Amino acid sequence: MNEEKQKQLEELIIQIVNKKSVVEARNLIDEEPTADIAEIVDNLNLEQQLTFLRILKTSEAAELFSYLDEEVQKNLAQSFSEEWGMNLLQELQSDELADVLDELPANVTSKILAYTPIEKREKLNKVLLYNDDEVGSIMGVDISKILNTFTVEQSLHKIKRDYKKRNAELVHYYYVVDGTNKLLGVLTLEEIIFADENVTIDDIYSPVASIHSSDKKEKAAQIFTEHDMSVLPVTNDDGILVGMITSDDVIDIINDESTEDMYKMAGINLPKDNDLDYIKTPWYKFVKSRILWLITLLIFVTLTQIIIHFSLNNIVTLNSTNKSVIETYSLVIALAAVVPTITNSVSNSGTQANISISRALSLNELEKKDYTKAIVKELLVGLVLGLTLSIVNIARLSVFYASTGDLLKEFSHSKSYWVIIIATSIALFISIVIAKVLGAVIPILFANLKKDHSSISFLVLNILNSIFSTLLIFGFSYWIFNLI
């Protein structure tokens, strides 16, 4: 949905909400994709969201509700205190309702479950039983099972009956089971429709790949890819059919997996709830998720500094016996040896911001109205991380230069090393802030120019960060040396 269309749709929905126009609301549902409407409703306030849902048919409201953001669903569900809201939740598929319940406080969940029919409650318990990383936690349990002894005619009647009673989702594949509900195979809807009515299902079904309910979600994505499937049956230890996974579920898995891989490469720790939405995540959570890697990196790249420091000092000592020359060169070497450690930390810091913003842009989590908010968020993260890393840098350089004996000599000698410590720490602080801001600005700029913001922005960012951090290190060192 382009920006102009989005603005028009937003104005229309607000107008419908203000007028409480039932006719206009239902016409809108018929004319516009539900996902586009949900995108607008996500950004309304709670009162407006409730008003819009109320003027729709319960089935329409439930369909729209299923497309809303998880946080919006949670807030709405907590506000449902009457029969209308409970009826809306009961219209959801069991796995969709389970996802909502999983986010709610225990007292609200209990209230909703008390209103839920026993049959559906049993289905919900099946899904809620599993851990978040298991296939069972995302499987749909509203499925129409076809007995292998059924005729084609009986199968069609059952599919229609289950769908009308909302006991099953309408899908392209239907699974064949025996009398004990053990999975036997699969049939497409076309195979059922075009087969002779008197043919037994046992004669026409095909074998099918399946997945265990306690398998990891990543395995489901792998099977989908290998078998080119749109629906995958889920079984338990005894081979009993307990649910199914759709391509929508797998797309979410793949998105989450690719994001996790990207974040791990940049040293970003994912939150425990795996909530990756950039705009909705508070800035301090980004600090928490990024800081450990940056501190670890800064400490361990000291090895690079040690190698450069002692190697160049040995070269100077071998080629000169003049003490003053050696001391002068040693100071220059000490400063030069710090540069890679600072530029590495700055580069990684910028990469973290770049990956977070690029991902948010790719998944349309960032709209134009959010650009300023994103840049300010990275600025705040940069200030805190920059200050923290500067303190760590002061500590690590103090220990290093004390171990070499340079800080333990007379002040006329040691003051030069204190200058290096202070100058590089100030440069590190400013460079981290700049890197975070550039990490947000550059991908946003390239996205606006309709360019590939993921690869181009990464290259440009690293070049700029190296230039700025190096300039700042030598610039502050020169300035402070002049002062003393």
Describe the fold and architecture.
The chain has 484 residues and is mainly alpha-helical. The chain has three domains: 3-129, MgtE N-terminal domain-like (MgtE N-terminal fold, Alpha Horseshoe), CATH 1.25.60; 145-246, CBS-domain; 266-483, Orthogonal Bundle (Tetracycline Repressor, domain 2), CATH 1.10.357.20. The protein is built from 20 helices and six strands. The protein has helices at 3-19, 22-31, 34-41, 46-54, 58-67, 70-79, 83-90, 94-103, 106-115, 118-128, 152-164, 189-194, 217-227, 247-265, 283-300, 302-319, 323-362, 371-404, 411-448, 455-483; strands at residues 145-147, 173-177, 183-188, 211-212, 231-235, 241-246. The strands form two sheets. The protein has a three-stranded mixed β-sheet. Helix 19 runs antiparallel to helix 20. The model has no long low-confidence stretch (mean pLDDT 87).
Structural class: mainly alpha
In DSSP terms (H or I, runs of 4 or more residues), the helix count works out at: 20
Helix residue percentage: 55-70%
Widest sheet: strand order?
1-2-3
**Corresponding CATH architecture of the largest domain:** Orthogonal Bundle
Largest sheet: 3 strands, mixed
Overall number of strands: 6
CATH fold-level label of the largest domain = Tetracycline Repressor, domain 2
CATH superfamily of the largest domain: SLC41 divalent cation transporters, integral membrane domain
Mean pLDDT rating: 87
Query: Domains counted in the coordinates: how many?
Result: 3
CATH class of the largest domain: Mainly Alpha
**Apparent shape:** elongated
Order of helices and strands: HHHHHHHHHHEHEEHEHEEHHHHHHH
Unreliable sequence segments = none
What is the percentage of strand-forming residues? 5-15%
| N-to-C span | 61 Å
Indicate the radius of gyration in whole angstroms.
30 Å
